[in-house]
């Protein structure tokens, strides 16, 4: 492994890598050169992992990685990349993980990612992405983990993820999403984790968040939710963990959570709840964890709840 960190290097002579013909891990941080070491790909044929972090990369050019056929992990986080030329990832047919976290990408188009058929993990969080070409993810039939948090998405069409049959985890947090198309996860038969926190849903009703067949974890905290209509979650038959914390809910009822019969944990802390029906959790036979701290509940209601659910494991937190 070779690490070069916090060094005012303005250029890299490719001959420098000839002394390390078996180099497998290269970590570069705070490098001033705009393309280092991408022009040296033919001298880095043994690399398994390449990280170029917090440097001055502004674009990825066609052929940048040709010669790095053994590369499995590529991290280009905290750069200034705004352009990815078609063919930029040529030669990376074995890449498993790609991070473009915290760059300056504004859109995702198909030609950017040609040649990454084996990709399993992709993060595009902390960019300025407002649109996604729906054919882009056709290129990643094996993708399981997709991170799109902290972008500018607010108008998903519904067909962006239909070609990701193996998707199990998707992060759409901290965008400006107000609702999701009904068919957006229809092909995601293995999706278990859906992160939608820090969006702008306000009122939840049936269809606001389409259910994936095997979804187990749904995170909706900090999403300006002030109302949940009956039937919203009735199709979430396998949901184990629901986080609705840090919203503006004032009242909750059993009808809001109809269908959540295998629920294990629910987060309702830091809302504005003033009224709680003691029977609200009667249809949750598997429930072990309830978080209610930071609300406006009367102490008498909390005492009733504690008496009603005395079994070990159920936590009513004030």
From TrEMBL:
PROSITE patterns: LRR (PS51450). The keyword Nucleotide-binding does not apply. GO terms for cellular component: extracellular matrix; extracellular space. InterPro entries: Dev_Immune_Receptor, Leu-rich_rpt, Leu-rich_rpt_4, Leu-rich_rpt_typical-subtyp, LRR_dom_sf. Keywords: Glycoprotein, Leucine-rich repeat, Repeat, Signal. SMART domains: LRR_TYP. This is Uncharacterized protein.
């Amino acid at each position: 492994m070779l690490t070069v960190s916090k060094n005012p290097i303005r250029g890299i002579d490719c001959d420098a890598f000839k002394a390390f013909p078996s180099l497998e891990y290269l970590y570069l941080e705070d490098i001033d050169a705009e393309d280092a070491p991408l022009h040296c790909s033919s001298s880095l044929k043994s690399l398994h992992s390449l990280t170029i972090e917090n440097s001055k990369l502004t674009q990825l050019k066609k052929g940048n990685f040709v010669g790095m056929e053994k590369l499995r992990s590529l991290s280009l986080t905290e750069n200034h990349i705004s352009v990815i030329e078609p063919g930029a990832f040529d030669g990376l047919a074995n890449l498993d993980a790609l991070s473009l976290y915290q760059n300056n990408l504004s859109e995702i188009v198909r030609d950017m990612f040609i040649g990454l058929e084996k990709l399993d993990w992709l993060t595009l969080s902390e960019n300025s992405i407002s649109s996604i070409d729906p054919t882009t993810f056709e290129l990643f039939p094996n993708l399981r983990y997709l991170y799109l948090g902290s972008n500018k998405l607010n108008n998903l069409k519904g067909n962006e993820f239909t070609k990701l049959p193996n998707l199990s985890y998707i992060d759409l947090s901290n965008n400006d999403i107000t609702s999701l198309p009904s068919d957006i996860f229809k092909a995601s038969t293995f999706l278990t984790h859906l992160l939608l926190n820090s969006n702008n849903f306000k009122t939840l009703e049936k269809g606001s968040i389409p259910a994936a067949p095997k979804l187990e974890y749904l995170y909706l905290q900090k999403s300006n939710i002030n109302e949940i209509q009956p039937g919203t979650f009735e199709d979430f038959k396998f949901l184990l963990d629901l986080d609705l914390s840090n919203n503006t809910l004032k009242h909750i009822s059993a009808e809001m959570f109809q269908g959540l019969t295998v629920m294990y944990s629910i987060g309702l802390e830091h809302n504005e709840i003033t009224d709680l029906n003691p029977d609200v959790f009667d249809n949750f036979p598997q429930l072990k964890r309830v978080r209610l701290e930071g609300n406006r509940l009367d102490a008498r209601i909390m005492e009733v709840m504690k008496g009603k659910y005395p079994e070990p494991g159920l936590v009513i937190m004030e």
